[in-house]
Amino acid sequence: MSSSVEFKIELNSNSFVLYTTNNMPTKTQDFKVNVSSEIGTLRCLLIHSPDSGLGKVVPSKAQDWLFEDIVHLNTIRKDEYDYYLKLLLYFLDPDKIKGKLTTIDQDSTRSFYKPDHANFHSSTKVVELEKLLAEILEDKDVRKKIVAAVCAIEGCTYKLQTELIDTPASELAKIIISGSIDTQRMIFAPIPNFIFTRDIGITINNHILLNKPAKKARSRETLLARYIFFNHPLFAAYRNNIIEIPDSLQHFLRPGEENEEKSTLEGGDVMVVSKNHLLIGFSERTSATAINETIKILFEKDVVQKVSIVKIPHKRDFMHIDTVFTQVKRNMWVILHSIGKVDKRGDGSEPIDHLIEEEHVDKPEVTQFIKGKINTPKKFESIEQLLADISENDLGSQEKTQFIYSGNEEFPYDSREQWTDSCNLLAVKEGVVLGYDRNDHTIKAFIQKGFQVIPVKELLKKFESGELSPDTLENTFITMPSAELSRARGGFHCMSMPVLRDEI
Predict the structure, then answer these.
(1) Burial group, residue 155, by CB count within 10 angstroms (0-12, 13-18, 19+)
(2) Which of 7, 250, 252, 432 is most solvent-facing, going by the fewest CB within 10 Å?
(3) Angle 131-46-84 (CA atoms, 0-180°, nearest 5)?
């Protein structure tokens, strides 16, 4: 059993030094939590690299575990996600990687990427969740609570619970995430969606909103996120700013096993588009009751002044709002055309509208609530109208708002490429976005808007040689290898939880 470690923390304007019991500093950082846009220069984010659990997803359980297909673990790591991590480090923490790329790439053991290895990058700007979990598990009391909670969710035996409590922290962190001991003995299901860190929580200014997942497969992720945010010293100065969404009274009082009144909210449905304006998606994963509670809490705590609710069809195709649009620049968005425009179905403009009985049509809707005026919400005619209003009024863009359409607005590539996350882009700075290389027609649309397109492998070489610099790069679409990653139905917006961005 590993020895207990006590954290001693000294706080001064959000600066801290973290000590272990031998009084040796293990980490020193000016750590801040603040995100007030989708496009401000990214300074810190939380990620989780693919763990062995992804390699244990079986076809019969794939959809239960929210995957569309099984993935090849070595490929998704070495040929795809590792490039994402290297790129993030070049933009956010270059001292960890610049001049070391050849050495890192030649290491067949991939020790640079492994949280329990001495050669792990240990960046405090590109922060690995498994590392944070291992660090809080060093505390005996926290370890017992987490193990008990996980074993309760997973229905483990008491004997197994005792075995896990006696497991060293770094090893225990891997077990809890992957579901396996020694990578072979599976004791409960993996949580393959943990790579989608956007869904565990969202930074809204200097607050953190924790999610409430709609699917049981993500319950363990939410549990781990709560323990990390409330127990890790990184977030000590912000513990009073962590927001949890309660279930409604109606949910508890409802007879039977119905789930209709349950409060569910996932991070892919939340976007901080300006300092005072938040978007929440009303989707298949985020419920009206959760939206109701979230708006009330955010207004009571004075976190934002305006919340816009974007209702999208409750379909697997459109899982969250960030699967149908994300922001590229102050005056530019990438979006699925059929979702963004005014929906004319059933309005009498087609002969068929007068020939068949009126049926419910699941149209996109936008409703905006302003603090102090909840009883008089504002309606927008379309999602594009809302996004233009954000660009021009919230962000003060002097240029006309532009839209880049999934698949370059060409059938059938618009829906095909939306399925493979053409609209789910991560902006590392304004006008510099990461996306999958397979979405050819969407990439063509970016080129037509004046963007340069650079494959990540080529870009890393140019960063290493000094030919290009992250600081001077602009209007760029960085293409990322995606043969395996895209099978998981999530892009780089999903695979990031920004903690700190520059204000714009």
Answers:
(1) exposed
(2) 252
(3) 100
